[in-house]
Amino acid sequence: MAQERKRIVITGIGVLTPIGLTKEDFWDSLYNGKSGAAPITYFDTTNFATTFACELKGFAADSYIDKKSADRMDPYCQYAVIAADQALNDSGLDLNEIDPLRIGVVHGSGIGGMTTYEQQFKTFLERGPRRISPFFIPMLIPDIAAGQISIRHGLMGPNYATSSACATSLHAIMDAYMLIQAGMADYMVCGGSEAPITQMSVGGFNAARALSTANDRPQQASRPYDRDRDGFVMGEGAGSLILESLESAKARGAKIYAEIVGVGATADAYHLTAPHPEGLGAVNAMKTAMKIAGITRENIDYINTHGTATPLGDLAEISAIKTAFGEHAYKLNISSTKSMTGHLLGAAGVVESIACLLAMQNQTVPPTINLDNLDPQVDLDVTPNTPKKRTIEYALNNGFGFGGHNGSIIFRNGASL
Fold first, then answer.
1. Structure confidence by residue, pLDDT tens digits, 142-156
2. Residue 128 to residue 229: CA distance in whole angstroms
3. How far is 186 from 261, CA to CA, in rounded Å?
4. pLDDT at 274 (0 to 100)
5. Are the C-beta atoms of 194 and 15 separated by less than 8 Å?
6. What is the CB-side half-sphere exposure of residue 255 using CA atoms within 13 A?
7. Looking at the DSSP assignment, which residues form a beta bridge with residue 415?
8. Which residue in 11, 211, 329, 348 has the fewest CB atoms around it within 10 Å?
């Protein structure tokens, strides 16, 4: 006889974004349509095609972590550790009462320690290989954030990173969900982080012609679904979630943000960087998530889209939503919060999942800002410019990455449980 599937819920949130370093500030900015874009301060952009990004504002690592530890972490790792701290605190878990073997970490990054790589390569060029830091490799690798979180809190359960470009942190959440389902852990810390606003990253994405070059109007540059969109705006930050069983959460009287009811992961098997033109992989991911959730497409109220503001990507996702949802697509609210946060790459999925959780908590759809001229090929309700009150019982989040990686997760409002 098949074992009944455990019901998995989210009981803690941690988030660092360009529009807020706490979940409260993050939601306030989403609700008010605030852009996090501004001229880049991390390096001289004189020779770059793009001179702006969505940097964290008012962030100082040593306000959260002791200086010695912070100095041995790349910014992407600092962000992950801090977001995980926030999520654990928010969950109310007493780690002293939990078997450390029963709590694990899956935290991913699409790129890892790019800042560290650039700094150490400069040292190598100027001073030779013997002056490379012994911390270079441990600071660089994308899995070290998961390791740092486990060491910091003594978490001895499953521990690793996912890395699937912009689907990274959605896959981390899915893996955490499946590890609890499989009985390998009772609690999981999961999410992703990215610190990609570096010379090589910006230069590389410019070379791929993926970034907006609207340097004269940074705050209006991220414009998903707008006729005049010209690429994504790079962002940075981290998000972290605490997962546990519904039974466990209820037994300890925890706040329940949402239940994860369905997950879907597919591949386009089409192109290195371009989406399948009909969004076939995205269709299959959304359908799989709904099948696992045991719901119909009419149950979904809100979709937080991948919506990067690239000419091809936006239309492929709109096409996919219409294919997956049929006539119900026209009754949905969808929005791209990347219009405000920029694109957090490997951290995008978890940060946008948190946007879904807060949207359900507030029964309000956050807007897609900067929509001045809706692309005539976009005929769905993309929640232009202002938030919209509506009942949100089920929300779906999409994330798609270079390589054709697709992820969809469906959340059910915790107030219903």
1. 999 999 999 999 999
2. 44
3. 17
4. 84
5. no
6. 12
7. none
8. 329
